Amino acid sequence: MQIAVAQLNLTVGALAQNAQRLLEVWHVAQRAGARITLSPELSLCGYVPQDLLLRRSFCDDCADTLKALAEEVNSGTLIVGFPEWDGGGRYNALALIRKRKVRQIYRKQILRAEEKRYFNKGRGNIVFEEGGTCFTLLCGEDVSHAASVRMAVEENAQCALVAGVHAYQMGDEIAQWQWYADRAQKIRLPILAALAVGGQDDKVYMGASPVVDDQGRLIQVLPAWNESVALVRMRQGKPEARSNFSEAPPEFHVYQALVLALRDYVRKNKFPGVVLGLSGGIDSALVLALAVDAIGADRVHAYRLPSPYTRKMSLKDAEKIAELTGVSLETIALKPLMKAMDRALLPVFEVPPNDLTAQNIQARLRAMLLMALSNQNHWLLLTTGNKSESAVGYSTLYGDMAGGFAPLKDLTKGWVYRLAHYRNSLGKVIPERVLTRAPSAELKPDQTDQDSLPPYEILDAIIEAYAERGEDADDLLEYGFTVKDINKTLDMLGSSEYKRSQSVIGPCVTARAFDGDWRYPLTSFWRDHIKNEERNQGE
Length: 539
What we know:
The chain is of the alpha/beta class. It has 17 helices and 19 strands. A hairpin with a 2-residue loop joins strand 14 and strand 15 (238-239).
């Protein structure tokens, strides 16, 4: 007997489109001889619809779409995830469809934190027979629900079918299937998991749906970062060995996550293309490469926006980047706008703008031009800032922070360089000088980032320890950082909360991204510092 595991990239709220895709996959599975087709969690409506789930009309539309879908399934078994509203509660449910009807419904029991806002906890279990094998049906984390699994085993279940979805984090490449392997060992049942793949707002799902035997051995894994339908051959209730797992470097997975997140945000929101400012620096160079890999060079529009402080080598580097990626490059000079702004402000200021004000004016003028291009052509404006800058507020509100999507938002500067080198290993798109020159905002003469910040290797390490791993200020001394660098970084981190709260979304790929996982008050007098006076001596 064969089972089709459908790893699908579905769109939140596109009910008819998602149903059609599920029907297409079921047809393919039937032609290949599969008796069961398993799709991911909430496959009918896409994961996760958030407050759409609070709309009775949305759940009613899901029910109507599910009914219409079921009427087309005249053979075999199709398992579909959907939000169920039964009048007394709302459930994250799985529908078992056979012979043109929903025959059984399973309700998820272990809810993620974000799901508890929307769903009630389900009860019970489902065991059904197909082709002489008894299967139990589970949703996501329910494979850890001891009572439900025990009841299924008592009813002679021989294999667990799991519909799930897992938001990607760095390091998940191995941990994801290992999680299923550990549970298969504990419940002594093989597990076939169908996981979602694709980007949804600030989340990205890698797929890599695993098939493991009752000993926790990996039998098969679907490709990461792509839709896939795999046939799993079952013999006497166990999946036949077909191991095809191969490890890839972490840079591969992080890069693919960003490409997929960007591609799906553009595709699912129906943007005809993207636009960005190409400065000749490392951040915009990497964003341009990601965009080209995501949607093609013909849909990427790059602009140089030089000011009087832009160095000639930056202009040449931007031109070279565009040439290497095949992207058209236009230039709009900033100097006339800067002069016009000076004329407008001098009567009000009575003195020329101070250094910081003048720098921010330049950044906001660039944003105004790029947003005009975005509005005129319906292009998505890509923001090129990174996590290191965001952490300490090294950015201009309504300036370089402006845009619609920030691909590097959850990457420290060190990771930006790692991915740039990785992308060049596939084919050179970023000139060597861009990788080696000192980063600079070029908003005043001879400016470098390190004029205002600790060296990036120190800044990144502090951010990763404090913001991502949750260590305290005193813990940071164990890494050899100076009190000065620790206190300065944490001061900037705390005072930049109001900026981060207004920043655009970007894919979350670390264990603790500033979007969602980091929740601090915008107004707070408290700062985490090294307070021990003895430790401050000599610093």
